[in-house]
Design a protein that fits this description.
The protein is an alpha/beta fold. Helices cover 47% and strands 19% of the residues. The structure holds ligand C2E and calcium ion (CA) (2 copies).
Length: 322
């Protein structure tokens, strides 16, 4: 019978053994070890439950970056159940085409003229409550459902945009593209065949890609983006300033728009550092001849300051929620 301390000691010995690389035919191999621990009978009454709990703990060790030990807990069990239910809900929503898309206007800060709209995915649970995309988008990425989700949002957004056009409003629509979507080599083809099918003019579509997504696989992303750009689609970098893209990449990717992240906009009037970042992004956009938009504007004072600094375009609750 081992105490928890002894289990901890044992697993740290295992980890330290695996710190050394294995040499096989002159090549060195490093192996990452993720350990999940469940204690019997404290954590489980049956052997099946015991094994499952150890597995859940190991899953956590992997998701926290591997090469570590994780102990089972009730809280962990609850998280897993919640995640599983969310996955079922997401699958069901996509199968039944029940995903909804809301639109948030992008405006000229000076005149208030409507310049575009961002498509944002919305999902409801069985009780009719909204589940935040901050929860279900990462899950969709992890489970591989993001491809289907992205297609459904894109199709709805393009159709909506075309209906605005029929009413006489030429308002471009922006669609968010998740990092995981760039892993799909068919992405560009899917987008262009949808545009052909719907007869959607490329100038009415903009794609928002986060800075961190761009940096995942630089050469692959670059080639995909240049194909999209060649098709006439506008590319903007979302959450700009929160990642760590270098200026040379910015040039390489040939993006059209920088989107100042809302975290800077929200603090710019109260935090000197954030104000400096906003100023730096604005001057960067000017010197690289890029369009600029600020997101998350909640106050008139933020809008006024952004205009004064030379940012002409914005979106946020101050004007309208999605
Ligand atoms: P994001 O692309 O940065 O979208 C902006 C988020 O800020 C939206 O949250 C929007 O509702 C919110 N927002 C807009 N104005 C304000 C404001 O003035 N104040 C505050 N506090 N928030 C504001 P939402 O709709 O919850 O979406 C969250 C994130 O989920 C998005 O962040 C985006 O990364 C992701 N997402 C949403 N829809 C999609 C989608 O269709 N595809 C992909 N790949 N990601 C999506
Ligand atoms: Ca966005
Ligand atoms: Ca953003």
């Amino acid at each position: 019978l081992w105490s928890i301390e002894e289990v901890g000691l044992f697993t740290s010995q295992v980890h330290s053994q695996f710190q050394q690389p294995f040499v096989l035919e002159d090549k060195k191999y490093q192996m990452a070890v993720s350990i999940g621990v469940s204690i019997y009978p404290d954590d489980a009454q049956t052997i099946e439950m015991f094994m499952r709990h150890a597995d859940v703990a190991m899953f956590k060790a992997k998701s926290e970056g591997r090469n570590r030990t994780s102990f089972f807990s009730d809280e962990l069990e609850q998280q897993i159940i919640h995640r599983h239910q969310l996955e079922l809900l997401l699958r069901e929503t996509l199968t039944n085409q029940q995903l909804q898309v809301y639109y948030q206007p992008k405006l000229c800060l000076e005149t208030g003229k409507l310049l575009g709209a961002e498509a944002l995915a919305r999902m409801q649970n069985h009780q009719g409550q909204w589940v935040s995309p901050i929860e279900f988008i990462p899950l969709a990425e992890e489970t591989g459902l993001i491809g289907e989700l992205g297609q459904q949002v894109l199709r709805q957004a393009c159709k909506e945009c075309l209906s605005w056009q029929q009413l006489g409003n030429q308002v471009p629509v922006s669609v968010n593209i998740a990092a995981a979507q760039f892993a799909d080599p068919l992405l560009v083809k899917q987008i262009s065949s949808l545009m052909t099918e719907l007869q959607m003019p490329a100038r009415l579509l903009e794609l928002e890609v986060t800075e961190s997504a761009l940096m995942l696989d630089v050469s692959k992303t670059q080639s995909m983006l240049s194909q999209l750009k060649a098709a006439g689609i506008c590319i903007s970098i979302d959450d700009f300033g929160t990642g760590y893209s270098s200026l040379s990449y910015l040039k390489k990717f040939q993006v059209d728009v920088l989107k100042i992240d809302k975290s800077f906009v929200q603090e710019m009037l109260t935090d000197r550092g954030d104000m400096e970042i906003v100023k730096a992004v604005i001057s960067l956009a000017k010197s690289m001849n890029l369009q600029l938009i600020a997101e998350g504007i909640e106050l008139e004072a933020q809008k006024d300051k952004l205009l004064e600094l030379g940012c002409q375009m914005g979106q946020g609750y101050f004007f309208s929620k999605p």
